[in-house]
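Appendix C: a fully annotated inverse folding record. The material below is reproduced so that readers can follow the format used throughout the book. The structure is listed first as tokens, followed by the designed sequence.
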């Protein structure tokens, strides 16, 4: 097998692990350092390390040690998050608050080992009327709380654990026309779940809706700021575990009714090409480039490009100027997300913009303005 780029060798290492095959030795022209850094950026370096261990010619000592440390870091984070998850669930259930999980803590179950599926934070869904009480309980557990927008809260623990509390699968907020489409596709979370046998307040999502939410969540990232390798690998495990357990007609109908078919087909073909060695039926070059450059959580340049393309497809003229205007004069919800403390003070739009202007002057970097304008000009 020939590898032209560092990311191709990273994908090879991942694929060898998930299929239990022996990896090829690193060819000339490929950098172990770059492969590790890319894997770290996409939070899949821990999986790739298990294939690196099988190589006869391993990376240089410094890179090898950094890679090994990252692998153990992923295991340490997993252990910490699992302990914190149990602590939070017990505390919420003790106060009669029912919970539902649909993101990383569930996805982990379908990987060969829990620590291999890294996640940035814990995610729980609660009933909207119990959100404030949930925040109080988390404060009692030592978390500091911020409200990025209505219907959600973020919690930060001194031990480094982050938690997000949601009241819906997708909560519409600052980008309503995008968020509403995903919200309309998958909503009313507790209606698609049932109490677990062990705890009537710990709800378990239906298989079809877990698959559907997971896919739609990936598509949301892909359409907005980009999704990374880890999310494409999730598709591999979703297909492996749910292909014969879900209502495929329901999934197809929801995907088609909400205008997601093109992107759905694209990410499925990328997954097949990378991890199942299936030949693509379409040009995937741009999709692959976007996924590789997006990192695990996407980036602002992809976000702006996708916004501009969407506006153009809807017939909006001067789409770039519109993005520039929104950058200079953002709406209140956008400013609330950047400065959550302003929400609790109920600042008006004018007050928010004055505050943002003062903070921008305080942290002003001319290079950031140039970088933004250059990225805008590159968009076609």
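Designed amino acids, in order:
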């Amino acid at each position: 097998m020939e590898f032209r780029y560092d990311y191709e060798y990273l994908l090879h290492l991942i694929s060898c692990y998930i299929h239990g095959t022996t990896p090829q030795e690193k060819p000339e022209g490929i950098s172990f350092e770059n492969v590790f850094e890319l894997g770290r950026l996409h939070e899949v370096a821990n999986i790739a390390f298990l294939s690196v261990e099988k190589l006869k010619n391993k990376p240089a000592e410094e890179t090898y040690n950094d890679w090994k440390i990252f692998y153990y870091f992923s295991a340490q984070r997993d252990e910490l998050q699992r302990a914190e998850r149990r602590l939070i669930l017990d505390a919420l259930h003790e106060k009669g608050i029912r919970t539902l999980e649909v993101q990383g803590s569930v996805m982990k179950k379908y990987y060969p080992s829990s620590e291999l599926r890294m996640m940035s934070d814990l995610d729980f869904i609660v009933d909207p009327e119990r959100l404030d009480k949930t925040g109080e309980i988390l404060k009692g557990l030592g978390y500091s709380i911020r409200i990025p927008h209505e219907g959600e809260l973020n919690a930060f623990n001194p031990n480094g654990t982050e938690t997000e509390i949601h009241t819906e699968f997708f909560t519409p907020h600052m980008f309503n026309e995008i968020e509403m489409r995903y919200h309309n596709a998958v909503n009313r979370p507790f209606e698609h779940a049932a109490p677990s046998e062990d705890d009537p307040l710990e709800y378990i999502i239906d298989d079809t809706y877990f698959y559907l939410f997971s896919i739609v969540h990936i598509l949301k990232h892909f359409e907005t700021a980009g999704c990374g390798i880890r999310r494409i690998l999730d598709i591999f495990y979703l297909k492996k575990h749910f292909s014969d357990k879900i209502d495929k007609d329901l999934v197809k109908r929801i995907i088609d009714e909400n205008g997601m078919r093109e992107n759905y087909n694209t990410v499925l073909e990328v997954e097949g090409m990378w991890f199942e060695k299936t030949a693509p039926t379409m040009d995937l070059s741009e999709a692959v480039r976007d996924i590789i450059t997006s990192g695990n959580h996407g980036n602002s340049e992809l976000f702006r490009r996708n916004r501009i393309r969407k506006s153009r497809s809807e017939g909006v003229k001067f789409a770039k100027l519109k993005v520039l205007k929104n950058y200079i004069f953002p709406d209140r919800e956008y400013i609330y997300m950047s400065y959550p403390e302003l929400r609790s003070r109920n600042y008006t739009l004018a007050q928010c913009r004055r505050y943002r202007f003062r903070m921008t002057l305080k942290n002003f970097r001319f290079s950031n303005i140039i970088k933004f304008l250059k990225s805008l000009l590159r968009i076609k």
